[in-house]
TrEMBL record:
Residue ranges of coiled coil: none
Location of the HTH lysR-type domain: 1-59
Protein family: Belongs to the LysR transcriptional regulatory family.
Organism: Ferrovibrio xuzhouensis
Keyword DNA-binding: yes
Pfam annotation, one family: HTH_1
Top-rank taxon: Bacteria
UniProt keyword terms in alphabetical order: DNA-binding, Transcription, Transcription regulation
Protein name: LysR family transcriptional regulator
Keyword Transcription: yes
InterPro entries: LysR-type_TF_proteobact-type (IPR058163), LysR_HTH_N (IPR000847), LysR_subst-bd (IPR005119), WH-like_DNA-bd_sf (IPR036388), WH_DNA-bd_sf (IPR036390)
Amino acid sequence: MRDWDDIRYFLELGRSPSLSAAARRLKVDHTTVARRIATLERRLGLKLFDRLARGYALTEEGLRLLTAAERVEQEALALGRQAGGAAGDAAGGLAGSLRIAAPPVVAAAFIAPRLLGFRQRHPGISLELAGGKEAADLGRREADLAVRLSKPADGRLVARRLGTLGFGFYAARSYRAAWRSSAARDYVGYDDSLEAVPQQRLLLKLAGGRPLAFAANDLASLHQAARTGLGIAALPHFLAAQDPLLRLLPLDAAAADREIWLLVHPDLRRAPRVRAGMDFLIALFENERALLAAGTARKAARRR
């Protein structure tokens, strides 16, 4: 393989369930991936993939090369991370780009509205906030910092606990009379793709086997569904307690509370722009601790 692009195309197709999935990761058309792989096979004189009805499958030769290619990839990624950290130092620290990954509703409804202060203090840093449902891979530089709602399993990353994201069961004010009878309650929650999420498990337990009145794969949709009176939803306090159309119901949701963690790759933690982002997020979550957790939000909701 003559260049890094050859390795990237080979690795992505070797690790992807389909040609289209590899193309999405590479941000190219699927025909480009097929053409690059065919060219690589001709150049090497090896058949790396079997073309099957369900997609591409690595041959024995391809499997052997995959291990070697992954070693090259790790070295290249490490070089990129270390160069990224050094570049911040060389630029005087507070210049360059900073990409923060976070769960969609935390990114859109909590972090984004509070970024002005950071921008005013560090005008040389170009901010990017990624609210993706899939966890960003910090080792692959998909983000410089990540905020997650579970303790990281990857011991290679530097992790700091930021606090607790408290949840409660909320419904529209017009729904207030119906919730008192458990048989009359309707619930809105995630679809089957997110059935393992803690607040979803608790919601389904309360539903007692009854089908959900509404299901979606994102928290913003559940928030809107609850506001319109479709049923009871498990929502984070910071999102729902300040909403004048919603009311907190006295149903115990403590088991659904989530820990909030900040993650960074050790190769980048000392880069000045990354350190500035870490300091900002740590202070932000500390200052808003009461809003994020149950106490203050629960009291504010009950006063209405």
